[in-house]
Amino acid sequence: MTALSLRALNRALLDRQFLLARTDRTPLDVIGRLAALQAQEPNWPYVGLWSRIHDFTRAELTALVEDRKVVRSALLRSTQHLTTADDFLRMRPLLQPVLDRTAGSSYFTRNRAARDSASGHGTGLDAASLVAEGLALLGGRTLPRRELARRLAERHPGHDGRILAGEVELRTPLVHDPATASWGSWGNRSAISVTPAAAWLGRPAAATGDGEAARELIRRYLAAFGPAGVKDVQAWSGLTRLGEVVATMGAELRRYAGPGGAELFDLADAELPDPETPAPARLLPAFDNVLLGHADRTRIIDDEDRPRVMPGSARVLPTFLVDGRVHGTWSLDAGTLRLAPFRPLRATDRTALEQEAHRLLPFVGGTTVAHDDRPATT
């Protein structure tokens, strides 16, 4: 079994994520290759595509959302993602048990139970009834999330409509309308509007998620994140017991040994780049896929740096890569793009990073690049 170094895994990941070199592929092709783009905030996937595609413009992705070729919805790990419409209809049924677990998690049950106790009665709704009621209120139309919540609260006095609406959104495929799935104001989650996916796309999701659907998801994952282990694909998808699925894929997969000896898998025909391939400076958006695609993330970020990037409250800050690894975070405030390295950079790396930041400025509406006062090294 061939052993792979951490650097070899790093370069393979960057190559498959179009971060070793920008691509001339279309945004639709790139989104399909990456399986899904994390989209907790609507603006961040635009930055992610800018870092991966030559001459990418915001209008290209907005057009895909408006033309219903790309949708934003709860998907992997029950979080918001952008994906192609075709992939969404294939993947959502397979991932639905994960979303159902989230809907039945302590957050939802605790809040509903608290309301039940306070009002002296329950909602009288099981999960299926709640979904049916939510879909009836939507009626195949687009409604603001807050309006769906208000109508559900009217029907169930004493209950938090936001909790009920959130449960509906997890338990049945709803997509966000273009006005709230496209580039807009940062952090404006309260304005999100939702539509039943079948009505928006004109066709239903696949009937169920079966064994072949799970194998296809693993293939897609490895094409974007491999080589990787079973725990990695489970961490990315939220699914469990995928080792049993991998065991059925036989000659489709090639086996490797990771840096610590763990067994890794890859597509049998996938090529690995030279580990010595230079990696350019790149600015990544908050929640970028490349940081969230593995259980073991040491191929892209040092364990000691993870708390700086993932400080809690489900946040993943915007980061930058130097020589293929996370070396700091960046922020945009009042037109200033501020770079905050975790440790001093070499003068050549600092220059390359600042050049990349200046290229990003007009895309994000910034005017100035600022750097903290950590001195460069020679």
Written description of the protein model:
The chain is of the alpha+beta class. Among the domains are: 36-201, no CATH class; 301-371, no CATH class. The chain has 17 helices and 14 strands. The protein has helices at 6-16, 27-34, 44-50, 58-66, 85-103, 106-119, 127-138, 145-155, 161-171, 178-181, 197-201, 211-225, 230-237, 242-246, 289-292, 306-309, 347-364; strands spanning 2-3, 37-38, 70-74, 80-84, 143-144, 174-176, 193-196, 253-257, 263-267, 282-284, 319-322, 325-333, 336-341, 368-371. Strands 10-11-12-13-14 form a five-stranded mixed sheet, with helices on one face. Strands 1-8-9 form a three-stranded mixed sheet. It has a three-stranded antiparallel sheet with strand order 2-4-3. The longest helix has 19 residues, at 85-103.
- Show unreliable segments: 118-123
Count every helix, treating DSSP H or I runs of 4 or more residues as helices.
17
Cα end-to-end separation: 40 Å
Radius of gyration: 22 Å
Shape: globular
**Structural class, judged by helices and strands?**
alpha+beta
Biggest β-sheet description: 5 strands, mixed
Strand runs, count = 14
Strand content: 15-25%
**What's the quaternary structure here?**
single chain
How do the strands of the widest beta sheet line up side by side? 10-11-12-13-14
In round numbers, the mean pLDDT is 92
In which range does the helix fraction lie?
40-55%
